[in-house]
Amino acid sequence: MLLGKKIILGISGSIAAYKSASLTRLLIKAGAEVQVLMTPSAQDFITPLTLSTLSKKAVFTEVSSESAWNNHVELGLWADAMVIAPATATTLAKLANGLCDNILAAAYLSARCPVFFAPAMDLDMWHHPATRSNVSRLQGYGNHLIPVGVGELASGLSGEGRMAEPEAIVAHLEQFFDQSKDLSGKKILLTAGPTYEPIDPVRFIGNRSSGKMGVALADAAARRGAIVTLILGPSKLSPAEQNVQVIRVETAQEMHDAALQAFATADAAILAAAVADYRPKTVATEKIKKKGEELQLDLIKNPDIAAELGQLKKTGQLLIGFALETNDEESNAQGKLERKNFDFIVLNSLRDAGAGFNHDTNKISILFKNNKRRDFELKSKNAVADDILQAMIDLFKYNNS
Ligand code: CTP
């Protein structure tokens, strides 16, 4: 619900800006506190006076005026959500690139709250590859797209590009805040990132995992109220949510020890880490010197964290795994689902463009125990994280029914 929620409404210059007046009114009616920010060109379409009357607050149109500096940093911290409606092609391009030449962009860059954007433009602008890429970049940063409508456009053309109706925008926000605490009190354990298996003091065996998917899952679970422990292999990333407990590890053995300990009290574990299956049998204490034409490294098996947790799993606990496959995707994933006693497994194929290591997007299928399969579209890793958590929540509900 929106009662008491603090919302920044950012308006950029589009004919759809006239709808921002009824959006402001609906938000106020729903009990929200609304701070309107306008770009200079938005004022060509609607006046600050109209919006300040409706929002019962002064509207900010500049970072600073002659007498005052409108503190966008404070605004960014104040808000529970920021909604940019209408978001024009120019504003999307600025935000996607971190350009900051107006109060809306400054507040966006300072915002720590979820950000929603409702684009408005002509259909060709909407379909242009530059716009597509700006939209997916913004989603990749964790912002939420409020889908455009289809219909008659200001240009006289008809098609995709209309700003969502104010009622639809409010419904989107309400749904977000309603579902946002549906993991309240649940303890979720996550493994993420690669592992590094030392060869000598300077070298290791590693892999290309960035940790993005696991960190997105940790943030999404924390946003939904979960108590999250993230066991993170060597990754440059950190969760954005302050209340995620991060345990940084290097090796599979360290990840194993931390995971076993945390699993004892967890309601669910999601294993997104790319764990090295083998490690060097011995670790040289000095740097290995270059000798002969060949070098033999003896490897021994690492513990299979997932399989061990699968054995330890108690009634009521959920165990969710990942499979990143290059071939025979379904049968490989199905095999892992059974061997490791997962409740479901998230399959991504390296054959899908935009899926896998280091991308901001992912394309997944979920395979369940009863041979059921759900395929999802290519989405930002944040949106994928919410799909995975939703499948987990549905299972929690099913097990308790
Ligand atoms: N996993 C794990 N510990 C390991 C290996 C894998 O916890 N030592 C988990 C991964 O985090 C993932 C799932 O098991 O959730 C499948 O990982 P994958 O590497 O695909 O499985 P393997 O059993 O190592 O299979 P493969 O033969 O394809 O390497």
Offer a concise description of the structure:
This protein is an alpha/beta fold.
**Strands of the biggest beta sheet: in what spatial order?**
12-11-8-13-16-17-19-20
Quaternary organization = single chain
Q: Count the strands?
A: 21
Number of domains: 2
Number of helices: 13
- CATH architecture of the largest domain, by name, is 3-Layer(aba) Sandwich
CATH topology of the largest domain: Rossmann fold
Query: Quick one: CATH class of the largest domain?
Result: Alpha Beta
Which geometry do the CA atoms define? elongated
Which stretches are poorly predicted, pLDDT < 50 over at least 5 residues? none
Strand content is 15-25%
User: What is the gyration radius calculated from CA atoms?
Assistant: 24 Å
| Helical residues, percent | 25-40%
Query: Which structural class fits the helix and strand makeup?
Result: alpha/beta
Report how far apart the termini are: 26 Å
How would you describe this protein?
This protein has 401 residues and is of the alpha/beta class. The chain has 2 domains: 6-179, Flavin prenyltransferase-like (Rossmann fold, 3-Layer(aba) Sandwich), CATH 3.40.50; 187-400, CoaB-like (Rossmann fold, 3-Layer(aba) Sandwich). The protein contains 13 helices and 21 strands. It has helices at 19-29, 48-55, 72-78, 89-97, 103-110, 123-127, 129-140, 166-179, 212-223, 252-263, 305-312, 329-339, 381-400, and strands at residues 6-11, 33-38, 81-87, 115-119, 144-145, 149-152, 158-162, 187-192, 197-198, 204-205, 227-232, 245-248, 268-271, 278-280, 299-301, 318-325, 344-349, 361-362, 365-368, 373-375, 379-380. Strand 16, helix 12 and strand 17 form a beta-alpha-beta unit. Helix 1 (19-29) packs parallel to helix 2 (48-55) and helix 9 (212-223) crosses helix 13 (381-400). The two termini are 26 Å apart. The mean pLDDT is 92. The protein binds cytidine-5'-triphosphate. The site of cytidine-5'-triphosphate (CTP) has 15 residues, from helix 11 and strand 16. Cytidine-5'-triphosphate is lined by residues 191, 252, 271, 273, 275, 277, 302, 304-306, 321-323, 336, 340.
